[in-house]
Amino acid sequence: QVQLVESGGGSVQPGGSLRLSCATSGISFSIRRMAWYRQAPGKQRELVASITSSGTTDYVDSVKGRFTISRDNANRSMYLQMNSLKPEDTAVYYCYCPYKAAWGQGTQVTVSS
């Protein structure tokens, strides 16, 4: 059974940090490209960052230098370290496996003073 479960969201002040986690099962994680998406209120879901099975990463321009995507194949997990958070980073963040077209349930990130 395919399962993606995000955790680590919350509320933080501008300039703060959060680390999101995505625990997976049923997707042969170690050989899959994975991605983080986000969706802000009233906006389309957008790709934030992706990572290949070999660890090659890519980021949307708005988070480059602030966010870091990583993976732990032994634990079938993916992470998103978010630093220097801005109010415009407020969104629901989703874990996504393109091969399975599988989404997690999302975790809310709110950046506000």
Please provide a written account of the structure.
With about 110 residues, the chain is an all-beta fold. Helices cover about 0% and strands about 50% of the residues. Strands 2, 4, 5, 6, 9, 10 and 11 form a 7-stranded mixed sheet that branches. A hairpin with a 4-residue loop joins strand 9 and strand 10. The model has no long low-confidence stretch (mean pLDDT about 95).
Q: Topology of this structure?
A:
Layout lengths: L2 E5 L2 E3 L5 E8 L8 E6 L6 E6 L5 E3 L7 E6 L4 E6 L8 E7 L4 E2 L3 E5 L2
Parallel strand pairs: 2-11
Antiparallel strand pairs: 1-3, 3-8, 4-5, 4-9, 5-6, 7-8, 9-10, 9-11
Distance between the termini: 40 Å
Mean pLDDT: 97
Could you list the spans in which at least 5 consecutive residues all have pLDDT below 50?
A: none
Helix- and strand-based class? mainly beta
Helicity range of the residues?
under 10%
| Number of DSSP-assigned strands | 11
- Biggest sheet descriptor: 7 strands, mixed
The coarse overall form would be globular
Helix and strand pattern = EEEEEEEEEEE
Number of continuous helical runs = 0
Please indicate the percent range of residues in DSSP E strands (runs of 2 or more).
Answer: over 45%
What is the CA-atom radius of gyration, in angstroms? 13 Å
